[in-house]
Design brief:
By secondary structure, this protein is mainly alpha-helical. The protein has one domain: ABC transporter involved in vitamin B12 uptake, BtuC. Helices cover 86% and strands 0% of the residues. The protein has eleven helices and no strands. It is globular and about 55 Å long.
Length: 265
């Protein structure tokens, strides 16, 4: 399998994608922003379509749209009373824009398939390097802001009382989430990137309880999911996304069963 260059590139890219998604996902789940990660994936679809339309890379268009939108949507959804309505409205708008941009471009429908469902096996060396740089940037930010971000994510009221700059931390998190959506969409597509950003972390929450352990389990499940998905896709010629999603869903329900078992024993 590794005698093929495209598979080597795919495994390198998926490793960095999984580490980033597993790390950021812990804070997505702790901040109850799973719905926002889904919305950003749809916004990313519009951004990638826009990139194709104007002649820039889909990744660049996705980053542009998700970065701007993450802060705007995060601000709109700050109040729980209007969170679902505002995010649903924005999701609908950007799905429509994505379809419009694709229809106006001269590219074939295969581009839409790649954006929606990912194209990891066709990723180039240059794209791998771009993903590595973005992933390392996100990881460095989390290392630098780890303590205050963890405090704010798991005890927001306590962080405010302690005098932390929670607004700055929120913006920092939204930026890293936007980048993570753009990175993760390269392997599972904009349609299912929220799978990697939510399910491994949600599963980890059922199994362990400290933040470092949650990060370790979440990253581990993400890595196993993408590696197993690539291997099974290679030997069956089935979509990578299917295997990744199936593994993460199974792991989630096993984690839920484990939690229920622990509560009853």
């Amino acid at each position: 399998m590794f005698e093929y260059e495209f598979m080597r590139q795919a495994f390198i890219a998926s490793t960095f994608i999984a580490i980033t998604a597993g790390l950021v996902g812990v804070f997505v789940v702790s901040r109850n922003m799973s719905f926002l990660s889904h919305t950003l994936s749809e916004i990313g679809f519009a951004g990638a379509s826009f990139g194709i339309l104007v002649g820039i890379s889909p990744l660049a268009g996705m980053i542009l749209f998700t970065l701007v939108s993450s802060i705007a949507v995060g601000s709109l959804s700050a109040e729980s009373s209007r969170r679902e309505a505002s995010i649903s409205a924005i999701s609908s708008l950007f799905i429509g824009l994505g379809i419009l941009f694709l229809s106006l471009s001269s590219e074939s429908s295969s581009y839409a398939t790649n954006i929606l469902f990912g194209s990891i096996v066709g990723i180039s060396a240059q794209e791998v390097h771009q993903l590595m740089i973005l992933a390392i940037f996100v990881i460095v930010i989390f290392i630098f802001f780890y303590k205050p971000l963890s405090f704010d994510s798991f005890d927001h009221i306590g962080a405010q009382a302690a005098g932390l700059k929670t607004r700055l931390l929120s913006i920092t998190f939204l930026i890293t989430l936007a980048l993570s959506v753009s990175i993760g969409a390269q392997i599972v597509g904009s349609l299912l990137v929220f799978v990697l950003l939510t399910l491994p972390a949600a599963t980890a929450k059922y199994i362990v309880h400290s933040v470092p352990k949650m990060i370790a389990v979440s990253v581990g499940l993400s890595l196993i999911g993408v590696w197993l998905g690539l291997y099974l896709a290679f030997i069956t010629n089935w979509p990578v996304t299917f295997f990744i999603s199936a593994f993460e869903v199974i792991a989630y329900f096993l984690g839920l069963c484990y939690k229920n078992w622990k509560l009853n024993h």
